[in-house]
Amino acid sequence: MVAAALERFWRIDAVVANAGFGAARGFTSETPEHWRDMILTNVLGVGLTIRASIDAIRESKGHFVLSGSLAGHQALPGSVYSATKWALSSLAEGRRQKLNGTGARTTLISPGAVDTPFFDNPPSTETLQPQDVARAVMYALSQPEPSTRTRS
């Protein structure tokens, strides 16, 4: 996909990694195969996306936007999904540190519950709407480049 985008548009200014799925809480509620697929999608998938596009983003001084979760900052009891989102938070911070000073950026968007088909039984708490998250992504992407001027 990266090669196709570069061939058609000559550059990549933004990469949004937003794939992921969850699992029932509890360490005996899902199969190990379900966990493996979730970990491969939620963590390795983002890592592979970064790997495939890092040179293009660095060259364009572009922007990575990674879709995390509140579950990546507050552990959920018995949640392997939460562990994948903690890993994603660490990936985002490591990516941000590695790009520091290059002009390229990384933003981690970590919403709480969003009213999407992600939930078989949506939480009883108030949920965000998908357009709320889309606005957060667009806000991050629309910010001006950081100033390179040093403070005196």
Low-confidence spans: none
Q: At the fourth CATH level, what is the homologous superfamily?
A: NAD(P)-binding Rossmann-like Domain
Shape: globular
| CATH-defined topology | Rossmann fold
Total beta-strand segments:
3
Radius of gyration: 17 Å
User: What multimeric state do the chains show?
Assistant: single chain
Strand content: 5-15%
Major β-sheet strand ordering: 1-2-3
Biggest β-sheet strands, sense, barrel = 3 strands, parallel
Measured between the Cα atoms of the first and last residue, the distance is: 44 Å
Mean pLDDT: 88
CATH architecture: 3-Layer(aba) Sandwich
Number of helices: 4
**How many domain modules?**
1
Helix fraction by DSSP (H/I, runs of at least 4): 40-55%
| SS-derived structural category | mainly alpha
Reading the helices and strands in chain order gives HEHEHEH
CATH class: Alpha Beta
What are the salient characteristics of this protein?
mainly alpha, single chain, Rossmann fold
Describe the structure.
With 152 residues, the chain is mainly alpha-helical. Helices cover 46% and strands 9% of the residues. α3 links the parallel β2 and β3. It is globular, with a radius of gyration of 17 Å. 22% of the residues are buried.
What are the SSEs and their pairings?
Elements: H1 2-9, E1 14-17, H2 32-60, E2 63-67, H3 80-99, E3 105-109, H4 130-142
Parallel strand pairs: 1-2, 2-3
